[in-house]
Amino acid sequence: xxxxxxxxxxxxxxxxxxxxxxxxxxxxxxxxxxxxxxxxxxxxxxxxxxxxxxxxxxxxxxxxxxxxxxxxxxxxxxxxxxxxxxxxxxxxxxxxxxxxxxxxxxxxxxxxxxxxxxxxxxxxxxxxxxxxxxxxxxxxxxxxxxxxxxxxxxxxxxxxxxxxxxxxxxxxxxxxxxxxxxxxxxxxxxxxxxxxxxxxxxxxxxxxxxxxxxxxxxxx
Length: 220
Prior knowledge:
The protein is of the alpha+beta class.
């Protein structure tokens, strides 16, 4: 389904087919993009190791910390070119205990530290030569849909279920003619059947910092 089809489906369910509309085109476009982002946060739908602007980081000598793209939710893997083994995920707390002075060590990167700087990749030890690190990540969509011909980035089999979040947002609009809590909750329940319960900021932050130090991949 493209954006036009998503909006048309929702208008039909809302019985909002005659102008002047209760929900504008901009409203429905906003709801559609919010639906895809929410689906990606809840169900971790987009795994990416090939989109260079997201996953490719140029490591430079004497630099330990690098900015991460804001669309990245979680890092699953970090692989540095010409180093055969992917970097280990290690907590700064374990390094503090087991390798005092680690922040000043230099050499070929062996690990990355996810729990020291928000939205940054920190490699250990500090590189002594330039190299390229390629990440495997779980992320949000690259771009919002704007034109009617635009399609969601997630797989087509999930597209129809995005309309339930759009209905939820539509029936939550604060207006006497649009707000309907009962219908909003029914639509939200249908969305949650497909994509799961809400992924809270506190849960995402904990997973990004604390999860995945063993071979068990677990929640992502």
